[in-house]
Each structure stands twice: as C-alpha cells, then as structure tokens.
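Hi,

Apologies if this is the wrong queue. I'm a grad student, and the batch job for Alpha-amylase from Antheraea pernyi produced an output file that my downstream script rejects. I'm not sure whether the problem is my script or the file. Here is the sequence I used:
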Amino acid sequence: MVTNMKRKMYLKLLVICAIIESIFMDHHDRTNQLPDRSTIVHLFEWKWLDIADECERFLAPKGFGGVQISPPSENVIIRLADGTRPWYERYQVMSYKLATRSGNREDFLNMTTRCNKVGVRIYADVVVNHMSGDNKENIGTGGTTADFQNYNYPGVPYSREHFHYPYCGIDDYSDVFKVRACELVGLKDLNHSLPHVRDKITDFLNDLISLGVAGFRVDAAKHMWPSDLKTIYDSLDNLNSDFGFEPKMRPYIYQEVVYSGNEPIKHSEYIPLGDVTEFRVGTELKPVFLGNNPLKWLVSWGEGWNLSPRDNVLVFIDNHDTQRTDKVLTYKTARAYKAAIAFMLAHPYGEPRVMSSFFFDKHEQGPPNDAKENIISPSINEDDTCGNGWVCEHRWRQIYQMVAFRNAVKGTDIKNWWDNGNNQIAFSRGDKGFIIFNVEGRNLNAILQTSLPKGKYCDVISGKVNDNGCTGRVINVDCEGHAEISLPENMEDMHLAIHVGKESRLPS
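Support response: The file is valid. Your script probably expects a header line. Output copied below for reference.
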C-alpha cells in the first residue's frame, strides 16, 4: 500500500516537472529561439563581424530572436559592365569553403559565438540546388577556380557526372521534371539523387551546425526533389550544445518554395520536411495597405485566404528577390510598408522575418563597397538609424517596437475584432496587446474594446517610453478595457499599437 502510494506520488511529481519544463523550456520550439524572443531579421549582405556587433548592441536588447545571414559559401566573383559586383553573385557557388565578402571562417565563428551568447540565433542561407553559371572571371571569393564548360568544380569536388544531364533550362513551370532537373537561370543543376552530392551537402551543413548555427534557409528548395532533401535533412547533426543549445535540438529548416496557388509543385510536398516560405503574404498585403483591397477582409487572414497552414510557414513582406520587383511593398513605399509589417507582426499567422536592406537604384546593384570592393559597414546614427548606404529597416522605430509587441503578446490569439466595413480595423491579442489601422482616407474616432488592463499606454508606433513618459501618443484604457481612439488620416503612420510590456505600459 505504501509502495503504491509512493509510486503514485512519484508519477505525479514527474508529470508536474514535465509541465513546468514545457512552460519554461519552450525555446525547444522549432525555430530554436529563446522563449522571450521572436522574429528573424535578414541582415542582407552584412559582414559577419558587423552582425556580431548588431546582435550585442541592438538585436538582443530589442528582443529579436534571430538573424538570417547571406550565403556563407564561396561564390564566383561577377563584375557587371560598369565594373560593379551584383548582389546575386552570392547565389553562385564555387565551393563550400567559408570565404565571402562577409568574412572568413574565423569571422563566422566570432559571429555565432557572440550572437548565441546574447540569445540571438543565426540561420544560414544555404545554396545547395546548384553551383555557379558560366562566368568570364574564373575565380571565387576564396580563390577557387572551376572549369565551367566541363562542369568541373574541384573546390568541392564536383565533376560532370554530378549534375543533371541532359542539360536544359527551365522554360515551363508546369513541367515538374524540368523545374527540378533543369538549370535555373543558367545555374548548373546538381543531381541530388547521387550519394556523393548528398554527402557533400550534408558535410557542408553539418560544418555550419558545428560552428553554431540554429538552422537554415534552403534556397531554391522547390527545384529539388523532396525525397532527396529528406535524405539530407535526416543526416544532419543535432545543434551544437557548446553554443547554448539543449541536447538533441534539431536545426530549424525553412525552405524557399515559391508558390502562387496554381502550380503543380505545392507547399504540401515540403511541409513534412520543414517550414516553407509563404511569398503570398507580401503579394496579398500590398493592395490591402495601399487601400485597393478593403482591410475588413483581413478578419480571415491566413488559411482563410488560402495560405498554407500557420504552423508551417515563414512569413515576410519582402525579401532580397521580391523587393526588386513591383509585386510587394518595400522601404521605398515606407508608410504602407511599415503598416503591413506591423500587421504581420501583430497577427499570429506564421513565423515572421523582416528585411534589412541597403539602398539600391538598379535591380542588380550590390551592397555599399569601397574602391577595393570591400563591403562598407553600416554606420549608426544618434537616432538608431543607419548610414553609409544602408536602410536598416529593422532599426526603424515602427518595426523594432512591433517586435517587442509580438514578444509581449506571445501565446494569445485574436480577440475583439472591429472594422468599419471598409478600411479601418482593430483587434486585440488576448489581454496583452491592441492594434488599429486606418487606410480609409478619413479620420478614425471610436471607443473600442482593447481587453488590456486599466492604465496609460505609450503608442509604440508614434513614440517610445523614456524617463519622462512617452515620446508619442498616450492611450488611456479604462477599468473595463475600453479606450477612446483617434487616428487622423494624415498621421505619419496609418496605425497605432499598445501592449502590456515595458516598452508600452506607463507607470500608473
């Protein structure tokens, strides 16, 4: 009898311990971010040591969860007719040596060590679908050469038999075989059914894991057979516990699968392997926040818009490819862009990533660089913005304050949806956050239910909390959770947001 009672008490304690562990250890979430963090920022074309600095001085203090870096593998050097080097050279691989304009292997380890130490994870953009295209300058950023015409890449090594044959270009995206076995814009297409190719890719990814990355953005995943990718992913090591990861944590994988909703290659083929990139978030939200599609329809945002399941997608407004098209909002359409990002970060659909760019005028324009073709580091201004040719959208107050909003409302869902039947909407995230948008072209004045505790709140879009209170608008919430909201149509920003975190709630 006593033994049975002890056994029951022991089992009860095990259950309690498991519950406590699940509460405090939800950094085991698939992204491997810490429980009080969220949001990946793509520091496009940044140098590794600059990323390390940014993790310590800004990203960690502001609550960002991770950084997507540019491809770390050696790329071919491309010079355009005007002598400049384009951004897309980073996606033309010469070898898996860690040698690019962002830095070398030592710099890479410096970055992962310092960023992980302050709780910011690193996700490597990995290019494993293809090698380079033909190029008149046969030299890589690490000094490697190749024989392009004979498909010979001694830096790996790969030779002709490791590529798909017969050689063809992708001229029909309704042909699944061509999409996965032909050359994407002239880039030499690897045959992943071959053990040698899979082994070399696995070795490359495992090397990055040993150096402290938390996961991978898999470039051009759509152009590889899911069965081959599964074999590669299954062969990956657990994350390296020397960098603070718990034992048996697996790398977070999000796969670039461009899908518009009417193609034969679907997200559902890749979701069993990892998350997929949901490009339709950017294309669908552009007309909404330009006022061409009523905001009220966002009440069903997510699966209700035929997007892929919320627990399987990485979401974003723009990326390094799409920002060079007219399909999405970018820093060049700043007012609508900031509102679209705010909606993405306020809504629970998907895992968010925000873009951080350099200024560009031409599609192929590469990052700011000096006369010796070295990337120039961003300078940091007194107001936290960047200089030296860098946009640094992640340092815009309206964006990093919404990262704090997302962190504060974690674990809640949407409540108190309100709209005016057209282009004014508002909603709460449980009893922890409230946001409102006005794209109507006329003033918004309403008393709305926020569900937030009684008190004064600093609108994190128009300002921020300091020793003197709030540098922006102050919103008063009454004892029943209501607030009187005024959002004129001519404001700098078309939205406001408040939440229970220290970045918004003011002392009573």
